[in-house]
Every structure is written in structure tokens, then in C-alpha cells.
Design brief:
By secondary structure, the protein is mainly α. Helices cover 66% and strands 0% of the residues. It has two helices and no strands. Helix 1 runs antiparallel to helix 2 (32-49).
């Protein structure tokens, strides 16, 4: 159940949230909002893979 939820959330994130990898965002110059989005996406991805 938990894994299915995070997989669905991951797909939703992919459609809604921006992809900073393709934009080649420098993490040293990222704003706090951008860092929060990166952290959120990585947390969701980590939980969907477990």
C-alpha cells in the first residue's frame, strides 16, 4: 500500500513539479524553494523505491 502511494505521488510530482536536472540548476545558487522541491522529490523517490 505504501509503495503504491509513493509511486503514484512520484508520477504526480513528475508531471507537476519542475525538473531542475534538465535545466542544469547549480545547487549552490538554488533558492530555498528550489531546494525544498529537490528534497521533496528525492524523499518521494526514495520511498517509492524501497
Amino acid at each position: 500500500m505504501k509503495k503504491k502511494f509513493f509511486k503514484a505521488l512520484s508520477k504526480l510530482n513528475k508531471k507537476i513539479l519542475p525538473n531542475y536536472t534538465k535545466k542544469e540548476l547549480d545547487l549552490r545558487k538554488a533558492s530555498k524553494i528550489q531546494m525544498a522541491i529537490i528534497g521533496w522529490k528525492s524523499w518521494v523517490t526514495k520511498n517509492s523505491l524501497d
